Structure to design on (347 residues):
């Protein structure tokens, strides 16, 4: 395997491990996006520009975006729930 | 099961899996050595038979068009599912929510630099997305990738803080019509092929290799996929953001 492929492959492994080891979901999503770009670059190096383009749009843009939107939605619902559970406390929390 | 028994079980299964894995990897072809005959045939014949220069697009939208129809249906169904799941009831938007508008209303407006950069990118992004969609049969790209690029353009409007404009774009009936035309167009173009004996067969004139309007149905299928993907992505984003937008718009008013 040529040097550049080995280098990118190692980067893919490193970023993938970093995503798996990250605990905070928001940070994890940022890492996932970065991993998506690196993986897209790897496909490009392997002369598959079509797949690389799909990987970058889906893996680096859409997937993290959907995670972000879902996390935002969950956080908002948790906030609403906690404010209805303790109505007296709600104003103070906000 | 005790911890010790579990560890033993894992140890035995793990060792077995590792052995099988090593045996399987040893049998793999060398890295980068392609052994199937199918790809070589396609590489040789596609340009002459279909007058397109991107073999991947020809595989996706012609040779294996039926698979892409399945993929597009999956996307459509997941979009519909997400929207149904996230649908905000009217009472939820207008009723008791006013009191906990706080967390969403507190989000500060984006900085001037963010707004200039985001709004400045919208135009180029739309053009780039249209380019990727319409040149799918000539260069890497196509309906799926270009559709996603197109859908991110309105999202930049949201990032720039122009919530009303984003709502006007994403909540427009045009988005739904585009989604329907995209899916229906793909199905309909498939029926064109029935005239020549099979569903999704390339039934239109192929044109000159390298020209924008060439490749027969491949071009049209790319465009309809682009429309469906862009509209679907935009609908999902709006379904996620609808509530936040409503609350923030009201708190500003």
């Amino acid at each position: 395997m040529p040097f550049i492929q080995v280098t990118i492959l190692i980067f893919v492994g490193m970023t993938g491990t970093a995503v798996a080891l990250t605990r905070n979901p928001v940070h994890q999503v940022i890492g996932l996006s970065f991993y998506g770009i690196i993986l897209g670059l790897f496909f490009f190096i392997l002369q598959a520009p079509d797949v690389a383009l799909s990987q970058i749009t889906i893996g680096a843009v859409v997937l993290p975006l959907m995670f972000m939107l879902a996390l935002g939605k969950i956080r908002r619902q948790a906030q609403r729930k906690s404010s209805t559970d303790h109505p007296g406390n709600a104003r103070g929390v906000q | 099961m005790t911890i010790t028994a579990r560890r033993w079980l894992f140890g035995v299964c793990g060792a077995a899996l590792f052995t099988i894995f090593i045996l399987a990897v040893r049998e793999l072809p060398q890295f980068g050595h392609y052994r199937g005959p199918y790809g070589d045939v396609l590489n040789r014949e596609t340009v002459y038979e279909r007058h397109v220069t991107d073999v991947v697009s020809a595989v996706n939208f012609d040779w294996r068009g039926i698979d892409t129809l399945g993929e597009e249906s999956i996307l459509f169904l997941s979009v519909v599912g997400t929207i149904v799941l996230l649908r905000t009831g009217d009472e939820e938007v207008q009723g008791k929510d006013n009191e906990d508008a706080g967390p969403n209303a507190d989000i500060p407006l984006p900085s001037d630099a963010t707004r200039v950069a985001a709004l400045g990118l919208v135009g180029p992004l739309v053009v780039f997305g249209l380019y990727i969609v319409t040149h799918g049969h000539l260069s890497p790209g196509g309906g799926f990738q270009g559709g996603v690029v197109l859908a991110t353009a309105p999202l930049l409007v949201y990032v720039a803080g122009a919530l009303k404009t984003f709502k006007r774009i994403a909540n427009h009936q045009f988005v739904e019509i585009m989604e329907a035309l995209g899916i229906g167009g793909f199905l309909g173009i498939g029926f064109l092929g029935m005239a020549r004996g099979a569903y999704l067969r390339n039934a239109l004139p192929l044109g000159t290799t390298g020209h924008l309007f060439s490749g027969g149905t491949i071009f049209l299928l790319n465009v309809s996929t682009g429309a469906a993907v862009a509209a679907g992505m935009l609908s999902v984003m709006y379904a996620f953001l609808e509530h936040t937008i409503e609350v923030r718009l009201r708190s500003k008013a």
